[in-house]
Amino acid sequence: MSMIVNRRDLDFVLYETLGLDKILQSERYGDYDRESLDSMLDLCQTIAEEEFLTCAAKLDANEPEFVDGKVETIPELKSAISAYQEAGLCASAYDSDIGGMQLPMMMDQALNGMFVCANNPAHIYLFLTQGVANMLAVCGSDELKNKYLPNLVNGNWFGTMCLSEPQAGSSLADITTKADLNVEGSYSITGTKMWISGGEQDITENIIHMVLAKIPGSPPGVKGISLFLVPKNRVNDDGSPGDFNNIALAGLNHKMGCRGATNCLLNFGESGESIGYLVGKENHGLANMFHMMNEARISVGMSAVMTALGGYLYSLDYARNRPQGRPLVNRNPEDPQIMISEHADIKRMLMTQKAFIEGAQTLMYYCAEMIDTKKTSRDQQQIQRLDLLLDLLTPICKSWPSEYCLEANKLAIQVLGGYGYTREYPVERLYRDNRLNHIHEGTWGIQGIDILGRKVRMHDGAAVAILREEMESTMDVASKHLELVNYCGQLEDSLSLVEKTIAAVAKADDPALALANATIFLDSMGHLVVAWMWLKQAVAAVEGKLDHNASDSAFYDGKLAATGFFFRYELPKIKPNLELVADLDSTCYDLTAEQFIGI
Amino acid sequence: MSMIVNRRDLDFVLYETLGLDKILQSERYGDYDRESLDSMLDLCQTIAEEEFLTCAAKLDANEPEFVDGKVETIPELKSAISAYQEAGLCASAYDSDIGGMQLPMMMDQALNGMFVCANNPAHIYLFLTQGVANMLAVCGSDELKNKYLPNLVNGNWFGTMCLSEPQAGSSLADITTKADLNVEGSYSITGTKMWISGGEQDITENIIHMVLAKIPGSPPGVKGISLFLVPKNRVNDDGSPGDFNNIALAGLNHKMGCRGATNCLLNFGESGESIGYLVGKENHGLANMFHMMNEARISVGMSAVMTALGGYLYSLDYARNRPQGRPLVNRNPEDPQIMISEHADIKRMLMTQKAFIEGAQTLMYYCAEMIDTKKTSRDQQQIQRLDLLLDLLTPICKSWPSEYCLEANKLAIQVLGGYGYTREYPVERLYRDNRLNHIHEGTWGIQGIDILGRKVRMHDGAAVAILREEMESTMDVASKHLELVNYCGQLEDSLSLVEKTIAAVAKADDPALALANATIFLDSMGHLVVAWMWLKQAVAAVEGKLDHNASDSAFYDGKLAATGFFFRYELPKIKPNLELVADLDSTCYDLTAEQFIGI
Which residues of A touch B564 (CB under 8 A)? Predict the structure, then answer.
C-alpha cells in the first residue's frame, strides 16, 4: 500500500461524495476528463513517492544551513523540486491565460496533497510561490505581470510572503518596514521581516518577495499598509538577471518540524538599496495580501490533513503487520500472538485518525469544489452565496485540521509504541511537522475571533443561514436511508445548538467578553461541520453499497463505521463546550496576570 | 521568576493542601522539619537551575553518540550529574539502613521534580538507578545487596531495567532472553534487550542491569520469568572492578525527545559470557520487577507534570512581557500595544496549563503522601486501605498527566507563536520530551485495561468504595464553604456516574467488549480524580484566604479560578465519554482491519 495516498478514498471523496465529474463538464475545465486526471494523479504519485518521500527523513535530519550569508540545502531537495518542475506541475494552480494548466482546485489540491504528504517542507516552497503568482496576477500592473509572472508560473523563480516582523507577528498594524518613493516611481524598502518561509534558498536563481510596508505619511495601523514586489535579484528590462537587491539574510530560524523549509529573518535596505514595486493601490496592501487568504488557509488545512494522513497510513500498515500480545479472552502464551490491529485500543486509535483525517479532507475538497463552482458560474447570486459560505468555513478549514489532525499524528506515534518515538520511523517527524499549522497564516486564537466576531455576524448572519440550507439539503437525502436517520436528528440538534449559541453571544454587552471563548466556539463549530461531512460520506457509502459490486463493501462499511464513530464519540463533545460560550463564561477572561502563580 | 519551580505553589500543595507537616511528626521522618527541608529545596533549586537547566538545550542538540561500541555524552551532562552526586542527592530515595537520606517521598518528589523540570533526560539516569536500588534492597539476597547496593545508593554506579525485547515490547510473556544455570550458582544470560534507557553511558564506571529472562524448563508466559542482576563490568569479591561482562551495545535509538538519555539495544552473551545473578525467587521475576511499579509510575506521572511545568512557567513569563496587539474594544493603532497575557485566548491557554499541571501535581503528591503514611503506619487496616487506593490511582497517575500535561506543553508553544516553534526557545523541546510518557512504563492502552479490567473490580470494588469515602470526606469539608457547594454537587454526580459506568461494564458478557473503551474510561476517571484534587486545593485556598494576610490573595484567587475552570470547562466532558463506556459501544471494536482503508 502507498504511504502517501489512499487512491480509493480520493476517488470516493472527489467523485462519489462530491461532484468533480460535474465540475469537469463546465467549459472552463473542459480540457480534462476523469481519465486524464487519473493519469496525472498516477504521474504525481510516482514523483512524490520516488523523489519527495525518499528524501523526507534526510531533509529533516539535514536542515538547510546558513553559510557565508547564504543557504545550503541538500541536493536531494533540489532534485525532487526539479522533477516537479520538469513535469510542468508548477503551473497546476494557474489559469491558462497566464500559462497555467487551469486545473480545478479540487484536482490541484489532490495532486499537490500527495507531495505534501510525502514531504511537506519541500512542498512549502512550491505552495508559497503559487500564492505569490496568484496575488500578482490579480493585483499587479501589466508591467509587473509581464516582467515577473512567467518565471513564477513556470517555477524558475520562487516567491515568498513577507508580513511579520520581529516585534509584530499577529499584529500587522504595528509593522514598521518603510517604503520611500523614488523619483522613477519605484520604492526603497527598509526594514526587517521575520518568519519568512523560503526567504532564502539555493534552489532557484531568483526569489520574488511580496512585502507589506508603510509609505511615510500613510494612515496609522492596517489602513496604511501597502504591498510591494521586491525581487532578491533585480531584473533588467529585457528579463535578464540584474544586480543583487540588497536583501540580507540575517538568520535562519531552527524549527521543531518542517525543518527542510527555510524560515528566515531578512533585512531589506540595510547594506544598500532594496528596490520594490507597488502592487495594487497604495494603502490597500492588506486587502491585496488577503485576496488569496481563503485559498491559502484551505491549503494550510490540507497540509495538516496530509501530514496526518502520512501518519495514519504508516501506523495502519504497522499495526496490520506487527504481532504482539493476545486477545483478552485467550492469554495462553503458547498460542501465537495476534497483530496489534486486533487490539481494541489500537482500533480506537486508528479509527480516531481515520475519522479526523477523512472528515477534514472532505471539508477541504468541499471548499475547493465551491471555489471551482464559483469560477465556472455566471450566476452572481450563486457566487455571492458561495463566497459567504467559504468565508464562514475558512477559519474552520484552517484550524480544525491543525488541531485534530495533529491529534491524529499523536495517535500514530502511540500505535507504534517505542518505535513511534524514534526518528527511525516517520511518525514522529510528521507530528513535529504538523505542529506548525496552528501557528502560521493566522493563529488558532485569531481564527476564533474571526469566526465568532465577524463571520457568523456578517450580513445579519447570512452565512450561517446558507450553512443551514446546505446542511438541510444533505439531511434531506440522508434521511431517506433508514440507517442514517438518527444521524440527521443529531446533526439538526447540533446545528440548532450552534445557532442558539450565536444568538446568545450576539446579545452580550461587552464585545470582549462575547469573544472570550471564541476558540472553543470555533472548535465546536468545526465538529458540527465535520459531522456534516461525515454524513455526506455516509450517504455516498450507502449509495455506493447499493450500486457497486460486493468486493468494495469493506471500504463502504469502514466509511459507515467512521461516521458512527464521529457521531457517537466526537459530536456529543460540543454540548458542554457551546454552553460555556453561550453563558459568556468569564472564568479565564477575569483572571489577572498575577493570579496565575501568585507573583 | 524561576523557570523550574513555583515555590509558593509547592508550599501550598505540600503543607496547605496536603499534610507534609503531619508526616514530619512521625518517628520515621523525625530527623527533618520544614526548615531543614526548605534549605534542601533551596540547594536543589540552585543546582538544578545552575547545572541542569543550563545544559538542557545543548544536551538536546548534542545527543549521546555511538562511537566504537561506546557512548559519548557531552561534558556538561557529567558535570551536572556530578553536582547532584556531590550534594549527596543520589541517596534521597532510600532508607537510612542502606545509607539513604530517608526523606518522605513527598519531599523526594519535590526536590527531584526541580531536576526533572530543568532537564528530564539528565534525570532519567538517576531515576532509573533509584528503582534498581530499591528493587535490590527489597528482593535481593544479602550477598547481592552487600556487593552492589552501596555503589548504587551513593550514585557511583547507575542502574537500568531491561524488560522489553525487539519482538516483545508490551507483551512480556513473549520474551526470549535465556538464563542458563552455571555450576557455581550464577547464570549465563543470552538475548537481546530493547529500549533500555541508560543501558550504556560514559558517566559512571559501572552499570547494574536488572534483566528479565527465562530459565530453561520454566513455565511458558509471564509465569516463567525470573529477574537477574547483570553488571556491565563484573565485580570482584573484594569490590574491586573486574572484567567486562560482555554486554554489547548494539545500537542507540534516536528519539524525538528526551534525547540526552541514551536508549539502547543491548546484546547479552553474544561475544562471551554475560554472568547474571538471580534476584528473588525463580519465576517470580515479574512480581519482583513490579514491586516498585507503583512508585515508578507515579514518578512517570510526575515527570509529565514537571515537563509541562517548564512550558507553563516559560510561556507565562513570555506572555507577561511580550507586547502584541490591542484590546478588542480599542483597536486604535496609535495607542500602545498590550501584553499578550491580557488577551482572552492567551489567558485561556495559560489557565488550561495551570489547571492541568497543578491538578495533576496535587494528585502525584497525594499519592506520595499515601506512601509516606503507609511507611509510618503500624495499622494493618490503614495500610491495606492505602494500598488499595494507590493501586486504583496508579494507572491514573501514570496516564492522565501523560495526556493532559502534554496538552499543556502544546499550549505553551501556542502562547509563544512562531517563537514557540523554534529551537531557540525551550517550549518545543519540553513538548518533545513529554511525548515519551504515554509510551514507557506501560502504555496508555495498558493502563486503561489495568484500571477497568482489574483495579475497579479487585476485592469486589473495595478500592472504588475507599475512593468514595475519601472524596466524601473532602466534600464534607468543602460543603461548609458557600462558594464550594456547587462543586461538591458536581463532584458527587460525576462520582456516581463513574460508579454506574463500572456497574454497567461489570454486567457485560464479553470481557473483551467490556474493555473496548477502557482507555476512555481511564481518561474520564482521571478527570474525576483531578477535579477532586482541585476541590482539595479550593478548600485550602478558601481557608488560606481567611488565615493569611491579604498580600497573598492573588495566589489564592488564582487557585479558586482554576478550580472553577476545571469544574466548568473540563469535568463536564466526562459525561458523553462515560456513556460510551457504559453502553459497551462497539463502534471501534467491530471494525475489521480491511475496513480502515478498504484494502
Answer: 587
